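Open question from group meeting: does this chain pack into something compact, or does most of it stay loose? Before anyone orders reagents, we agreed to write out a predicted structure and look at it together. Recording both the input and the output here so the notebook holds the full record.
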Amino acid sequence: MAIDAVRRFTELRRQHPELSDTELLNSNNPRGFTGTADVVVAGAGMLGLCYAVHLKNIAPDLKIDIFEKSLTPIQKIGESTLSPFATFTTGDVLPYDYLLRIFALKDGLHFYSVDQEGREVTAQDIGGLDIAFQLDRRMSELFMTMWAQSLGINVYHGVAVDFEVSARGSITTDLSLDELSIPKPDIPIRPFSTPKVLLKDSSNTIGTSIDARLVCDASGFSRRLTGKFGAREKFESSWNTNAYWTYFREKNTSIIEDRLLAWDYPATKHLCFPEGWGWFIGLISWERAPLANLMDLCAQIITSAAAGIPADKIPCTRALSKTFNCPYEFITSIGWAVRDDFQLPSDLSSYGSGEGEQKFNFFKKRYPTIDKLLTESYEILPNYYGKFTYFVKKGLAYRSPVVAGEGWLAIGNSAGFTNPLISPGINAGVAGSWSAANLTAQVLAAPAHEAKRAMMAAAKEHQRFMYDFALPRLFNMNRLWHNAFRDHRLFESIPKTLWSASFEEVDDHYFGVQRQQLYSQADANWMLGSGLDAFQDLCAEVLPILDGPNGGAQPSEEDVAKVLAIAGRVVQERTERWPQNSWGNWLRQYDHKLQKVPGKRTRNAGFLVEATRCISCRYFVHNRSTMCPVCGEKDAWNKSKSRCV
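Structure tokens returned:
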């Protein structure tokens, strides 16, 4: 399809070669800097942008400014999403088929338990429920930045943020909510205070501070505001997790052994072992594309969607790449998230030259199935994202003691984090962003005499949701999964038990009324299943038996027997209570009663989503599409499926 391309940013770069990438990004802001805003967001990561976009959608008159210390969007850990994020973007941004021009397709989760001898592989999976994405974070945050700017939100890169807070900046206040309701006529209204926002602009083109009615701390692990109210808190557990990762290119996946069930499928793969687990996330990488060109490509999609052009009339990835001179390639993010109570050898020098390389290679070589897979079917991409090949992130799980206060709310990693397993960073994090945006809109819409009461009520509710509800429940889910990796029998039993406890009516969750609506409070409370009381009841039974400072060691036979009995009882209770759940449609090896079927390796007919290799480009196409989003092949699903048959 011919593209009526507008090359605003490459033309601006041609006319003004002195412009930095940061200045180019900031030139797209819809308003000039005034020193005041209704809402200031510290951090233009994915969750800060989701917060601002949803807030603008529900309160379009608010003036929102976002400040990000990074000079441009950059690649970072956290590339996988699930249906909560796709539901959010469908309602607040664009339907998925627009975004599949720039993001990789994802359907479901695959898990494989491997042993140290390479003899045994146990496979588990869930999918067919909803379309999701694998995100190149540079592209995803650039696109969301430009989407926010198209809504009227200013997003400034290259601007570091700090805060000055008063002693009353936390949710502890000298006034009760009753005292804040309606002021006496002879007492002046006391509007709530807001932290002072200090700016350090690398380009010196805006001011050094900004006045805001309310601020949102989305500054991530740096915790620019939450850090002022206390150090990170460890969860009530004797162990934490560290991550070591790098990037690869597939070189020969046709020889991957069959016991890695359905490996050639666009799910996030998890290779699980007693000390932790590894992720395999396939990405469409735009790392080699110049920023100005990428901005023109994103602008093309945004303006086309705004003009009402349907997704199947938007040019494919290949055409967009050619038109805007934006090279792309398919790569795979691979890394390990491992327990820190496992005792590593004191000398790892034979595994590489630095900590990231040494520990990545130690776990690779420790498990023959993993070593064979990486050696034969993947090739490493040295220095793909800058001067480092390997990356390290330690102490992943924590929470901030205070995540809300007078005039502010915190979201994302500034509030806390658990573990990248099942992608809680973006998928569960969007729940906090969405709910915080709703609370912000309520506070700023309150009458003046109710403003402080509304603010403090919102702060208390956000503190409860993030600190007391979301983060502890997600952490329990993480602990239960990690303990399931310690024994193949547990790995055979616990995942299906978790699925049964993660849903009530699973079919209705994806087929029913809820999926016809936008992202909802039910989505926020679900928390990938961990929000359900039944899930936490399961954790309360199993974790006292299995969890502890064991370094992933083999549990006792007595403990395994106890957990298997609990799991069997829970599955029976849940399947009897909700007999209509079609588990065989979502799980390749199980029937509707969550019983394993010998020889079953495919989902039953009735799934919502399925993917296959495009007959032309060999990338993945899904069954809801009329064309391949990557190469533009018409009727790609039917043609490719008929070729498979």
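Observations to bring back to the group:
The radius of gyration is 25 Å.
The mean pLDDT is 91.
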